[in-house]
Amino acid sequence: MAKNLQDTTTLHNGVKMPWFGLGVFKVEEGAELVQAVKSAISHGYRSIDTAAIYENETGVGQGIREALLENKLLREELFVTSKVWNADLGYESTLAAYETSLAKLGLDYLDLYLIHWPVEGKYQEAWRALETLYKEGRVKAIGVSNFQIHHLEDVMKDSEIKPMVNQVELHPYLTQQDLLSFCKEQGIQLEAWSPLMQGQLLEQPLIQDIAAKHDKSVAQVILRWDLQRGIVTIPKSTKEQRIIENATLFDFQLTEEDMTLIASLNQDQRVGPDPDNFDF
């Protein structure tokens, strides 16, 4: 269980991944993005998550470089994730997409590279490309995003390397308990995107009551709930005060009753597409 912002979980290949990071979904290129990345790193974040389809890898890379200089950090002290988009799934096209992401970020390697969505008939070849990148030492860890149990089983039956991470939509209205149990059994680290349901849970009465009891915000309670379930989490924010607040999670603990009550809110409700029925 994470005890501070730099604490890590060890992936099945031995790579250490921070439990907590900054997501930059829908943050446009520009000064606000660069400053958000710099603020997060200066306040102790060591994980930044982006994707090709976010169209902001250039700004993320700039923020990383400036933060490394200003905070006198080494590249190896950060954990940087990006994802290959659906249009580039395929063996050669995935290899090319990786090079494009690296160039935009201005980095020599990624710590984690993910297949963004399980596009039927395409993700198997993309996974083969990720295995190549991993075996060549071009990326420290490889994984998938938005994969359900049957997608994971499909990848693993023909692969040399098991995914190290599965990043999925996960929050109190979509607890993903079966998927979490499966990933734990397989040694695959589950990671939550949209952990706050894009802000829709901030007025949730039951979580508000739990937050008041602990003198914490609703966001802090939900993010703490993720960590206590053994789930890596990457909330998005561009505001420095929120970036700081989101990470203030290590001075309290939810009780078993709190954890059960929050889990009881599950409605299998998504804000993003259903991985079994999407069209991009």
From TrEMBL:
Gene3D superfamilies to which the protein is assigned, alphabetical: NADP-dependent oxidoreductase domain
Record-annotated site: Lowers pKa of active site Tyr: 83
Domain NADP-dependent oxidoreductase, chain residue ranges per copy: 31-266
Signal peptide (UniProt feature, chain positions): none
Family matches, as Pfam families: Aldo_ket_red
Phosphoprotein found in the keyword field: no
Catalytic residues in the record: 54 (proton donor)
GO molecular function per UniProt: oxidoreductase activity
Keywords tagged on the record: Oxidoreductase
Entries under PROSITE patterns matching the protein: ALDOKETO_REDUCTASE_1, ALDOKETO_REDUCTASE_2, ALDOKETO_REDUCTASE_3
Binding site for substrate: 116
Similarity remark: Belongs to the aldo/keto reductase family.
Name of the protein in question: Aldo/keto reductase
Upper classification of the organism: Bacteria, Bacillati, Bacillota, Bacilli, Bacillales
